[in-house]
Specification:
Helix 1 packs across helix 3 and helix 1 crosses helix 4. The chain folds into three domains: about 80 residues, Winged helix-like DNA-binding domain superfamily/Winged helix DNA-binding domain (Arc Repressor Mutant, subunit A); about 100 residues, Periplasmic binding protein-like II (D-Maltodextrin-Binding Protein, domain 2, 3-Layer(aba) Sandwich), CATH 3.40.190.10; about 100 residues, Periplasmic binding protein-like II (D-Maltodextrin-Binding Protein, domain 2). The longest helix has 28 residues. It is elongated and about 90 Å long. It is of the alpha/beta class and about 300 residues long. The model has no long low-confidence stretch (mean pLDDT about 90). The chain contains ten helices and eleven strands.
């Protein structure tokens, strides 16, 4: 469907006057009539009815005018965005962020990067771990920030940004909140809130079963915000990375073991000709003092 014909029809639908619509379109009246007939052939019915000197929209014409106006608006928006990006005044940067990675440690780096690169426009995408590799390799995103290496390891390059402990999260007034640490046996006595998108989940639950202290799961959810709200309101406890807590009213307590940590990684597709914005982001991430955000 020709966008030029759509715009000409919309002018006609607005003016209901062939002469005026042709003038605004910058074409002759016969050319406008031909464009409308072609559009009618494509849509399978009459859009305009002429009664002497009067012009009316048919029922199909009224319905199509609404839909085609949206098409024209979307096209105009796309054209404006293309001009904006092609002008070189902005560099788009698409970044997938695993939903379990909290903003606390990332925000200072993002602020520093954007302060130095004001022409970069970052879009952060909330992406589950299972889709990050696919999105990187397909080019849907330029970079990914994740809490565990994903599949296609040979085709992705990973840079460790920082490590963080896994901790127990509970309500601020929970009896365990004041403890210096907790162990798996302590957790097995409480209602456990299961974070389904946690990349550490299978390892943690398998460890609990192997050590004969399985968790008493009361709620499972893929939504981090739901789990944290349930923790905050005293409905149970969960295990999560220390810097993933984003709600007030939640206390974190260290686990009495050294084997439950995770690395947060920056990942890029190997061998791809990266944009200048990607190269700058990676270079600055390598130099950034990530330890400055530690506890």
């Amino acid at each position: 469907m020709d966008l030029r014909r759509i715009r000409q029809f919309l002018l006609l639908a607005d003016t209901l006057n062939f002469s005026e619509a042709a003038r605004r379109s910058g074409v002759s009246q016969p050319a406008l009539s031909k464009a409308v007939r072609k559009l009618e052939e494509e849509l399978g019915g009459s859009l305009i009815r002429r009664e002497g000197r009067l012009t009316h929209l048919t029922h199909l014409g009224r319905a199509m005018a609404l839909h085609l106006a949206e098409v024209a608006r979307s096209a105009a928006s796309a054209e404006a965005e293309a001009r904006r990006i092609s002008s070189g005044n902005v560099q788009p940067l698409e970044i997938a962020v695993m939903c379990t990675v909290g903003p606390y440690r990332l925000s200072p780096f993002m602020l520093d990067y954007l302060a130095e690169h004001r022409d970069v426009e970052i879009t952060l995408h909330d992406v589950p771990a299972m889709k990050i590799g696919e999105d990187l390799l397909s080019g849907r995103v330029d970079l990914a920030i994740l809490g565990a290496p994903v599949s296609d390891a040979g085709r992705l390059h990973h840079i460790e940004l920082y490590t963080e402990d896994m901790v127990m999260a509970c309500a601020a007034d929970h009896p365990y909140a004041a403890r210096p640490e907790v162990d798996l046996e302590d957790l097995s006595r409480l209602s456990y809130l299961d974070r389904l998108h946690c990349e550490f989940r299978d390892t943690f639950l398998a460890t609990a079963v192997r050590e004969n202290v399985p968790m008493r799961i009361s709620v499972r959810s893929e939504r981090e915000d739901w789990i944290q709200y349930l923790v905050k309101t005293g409905q149970g406890v969960t295990i999560l990375p220390r810097h993933s807590v984003v709600m007030d009213g939640i206390a974190t307590v260290p686990l009495a073991r050294e084997d439950m940590k995770r690395s947060v990684l920056l990942s890029v597709a190997a061998g791809r000709q990266d944009s200048e914005a990607v190269q700058q982001f990676v270079a600055q991430a390598r130099k950034f003092a990530w330890s400055g955000g530690a506890d």
